[in-house]
Amino acid sequence: MVIDSVFNSRRQFLVQSSALALSMALPLPAELATHTRQARLLAAWQLPNGLYQVGVLNAAGQGAALSYDVTMAFDLPTRPHGLMHLHGDEYLLIARRPGDWLLRLNIRSGETSRVWQDEDRHLNGHSAVYGDWLYTTETDVLNGTGALAVRDRHTLELQDVWSTLGKDPHEMLVLPRGGLGIDEPFLLVANGGIPTHADMGRTPLNQLPMDSSIVAMSPRTGRVLNQWTLSDSRLSLRHMAVHASGVVGVAMQTHHSTAALRDAAPVLALLDENGLRTVNESAGVKGYAGDIVATPQGFVISCTKNNSAGQFDVQGNLLYSQAANAACALAAEGEQVWLGSSAVEFSKPLELDNHWLLI
């Protein structure tokens, strides 16, 4: 089976993915492109029987010759979400919110170990490392407030819990001293702001006000160094990527009351030393951005419900868009972007999950 997709821009590129392919690679214009290296991605997916797995995909070739093979697979207890490199050959996988497990995976030996979450808080699917510490975004089960758990990077044992000054914290980044005008290294946390209740799982309590923001926190003490919000309180700030210029791109999901309002809302925001602002050119995609990566030109976002992906420069100008069925997972290296989409018809179908990671 071959999936065709077309770039809409000054130049049009035909990109094909074949056989066991789960993604399209988005290359440079043909006259500028270099040979795509043989890539490996850590990814998670759902099997036809409803079970979830994490494993390694080998990608080789470029353009129409791009193909992927599953070379390693491990069963998971429930649906996963974020993936992160720990050290060496070890990676961390976190359960989708409201999650209750973390899985450490060694991609060389195949060894795995799992840590179950405290009953007081549930995991929100993302993590980051700084020095000897691992940080996981979480939600307090009783009061619904956002929390940042501090863990030993090597043992995953809990050391401390800090408030994120918001609700539903999701992805976080580690930024260096000088980033966003802050004079020390810091954690950047996206508070998604969606209110939920322990008895209702992922169901949002839409009648309650949202509390979404971006927070800069000291990785040593948890002290809040800065906080940014948007005027539209129904925009959920969720996934982030940092450009080489220091500008942070934020992928958003809208929670307005009607489909028309959701479609009219932007799904990309930009954060720099001047503050946080939305990108109007990112509207019209049904109010949902699934993932974001930085490229030399700016940012690529996947618009899952609109079956598309788009690239923007660091000023927020739309450079091009591409049709891609159920587009979500993104990974990037230099000019090359790997975009995960739905596996349409395979002899053994795999439904790729929200995120994947170049390894």
Describe the structure.
There is one protein chain. By secondary structure, the protein is mostly beta strands. The chain folds into three domains: 79 residues, no CATH class; 152 residues, 6 Propeller (Neuraminidase); 95 residues, Thrombin, subunit H, CATH 2.40.10. β1 and β2 form a beta hairpin. The longest helix is centred in the C-terminal third of the chain and has 6 residues. It starts with a strand and ends with a strand.
Looking at this protein, list some descriptive labels.
1 helix, Neuraminidase, 359 residues, globular, mainly beta, 6-stranded antiparallel β-sheet, Thrombin, subunit H, 4-stranded antiparallel β-sheet, 3 domains, single chain, 29 strands
Q: Please outline the major beta sheet.
A: 6 strands, antiparallel
**CATH uppermost class of the largest domain:** Mainly Beta
Annotated CATH homologous superfamily of the largest domain: TolB, C-terminal domain
SSE class:
mainly beta
Q: Say how many strands there are.
A: 29
Q: Which CATH architecture of the largest domain is right?
A: 6 Propeller
What fraction, in percent, of the residue positions are helical?
under 10%
- Report the oligomer: single chain
Tell me the span between the first and last alpha carbons. Answer: 26 Å
What coarse outline follows from CA principal-axis ratios? globular
The overall pLDDT, averaged over residues, is 84
Side-by-side strand order of the widest sheet: 2-1-26-25-24-23
In CATH, the topology of the largest domain is named: Neuraminidase
Write the H/E string, N to C. Answer: EEEEEEEEEEEEEEEEEEEEHEEEEEEEEE
Low-confidence stretches: 1-24, 27-35, 343-348
Tally of DSSP helical segments: 1
Beta-strand percentage? over 45%
